[in-house]
Amino acid sequence: MSELRAEGVWAGFGSKVVLRGVDVVVRGGEWVTLLGCNGSGKTTMLRVLAGLHTPDQGRVLVDGEQLAHLRRRAVARRIALLPQTMPPLSGLTVRQLVRQGRYAARGPLGMLTEADDDEVRAALRDTGTQDWADSPVGQLSGGQRQRVRLALALAQDAPVLLLDEPTTYLDVRHQLEVLDLVRRLQHERSLTVVAVLHDLTQAVRYSDRVVALRDGRVHAEGVPQDVVDAALLREVYGVRGRVWQDELGGLVCTFDGVSETD
């Protein structure tokens, strides 16, 4: 199991500062969800953790090694990212797409072979996509395509999995199917997971810990039961609401309106 750590990260775009001295530690095998309203820095933080955005200050380490000192393929062997969106995939079958996840391990010449390796077969099997393996990706439903994209990330066989709003555009049933699948794979593969989720009830249900960002800084962090409350809804999201425990012991967030003060 791999540990992912960000230390004193400042990052932005040109003169725009997005992250302001962020420290995040994700222990091996843990699921941490980044919370916050739009513009709080969640996606930028995820891209920094993936090695896709170089911080202006601070550093990111995976198992004690700085990402900045690793080649791109070496990073890809350790960290897989499921982004919010992907470019059009017309003409590719599910199997052909999932094979692309093996680039870091097989290199450009290895990608020319048509043979599946154990990791591709395992990714198709574990995500339940093997029955569609020879179907064009463009013909699949939204929920099916999201499973295929997850299979693509799993084919990297990386111990760290980053998810940027993995339930976007999915109905409630498919949202839960995807999150249940990620949680099962987290345990079966001993994955370290970092996710960005907008649905607070889902975030507190699936996460081992949450990190709430506000204005590019860590506002609160900890286990959901200790962190997610009415004060966090008001201070991070600017809404009035309540957080209560249902009969199964899970936390539920309900919203009463926009807060008059941030």
From TrEMBL:
Lipid bilayer topology: Peripheral membrane protein
Keyword NADP tagged: no
Annotated ABC transporter domain residues: 4-240
Gene3D superfamilies membership: P-loop containing nucleotide triphosphate hydrolases
Subcellular location field: Cell membrane
InterPro entries in alphabetical order: AAA+_ATPase (IPR003593), ABC_transporter-like_ATP-bd (IPR003439), ABC_transporter-like_CS (IPR017871), P-loop_NTPase (IPR027417), Siderophore_ABC-ATPase (IPR051535)
PROSITE patterns: ABC_TRANSPORTER_1 (PS00211), ABC_TRANSPORTER_2 (PS50893)
Keyword vocabulary terms for this entry: ATP-binding, Cell membrane, Ion transport, Iron, Iron transport, Membrane, Nucleotide-binding, Transport
Top-rank taxon, per record: Bacteria
Keyword Protease: no
Molecular-function GO term, any one: ATP binding
Protein's recorded name: Iron complex transport system ATP-binding protein
Protein's organism: Lentzea atacamensis
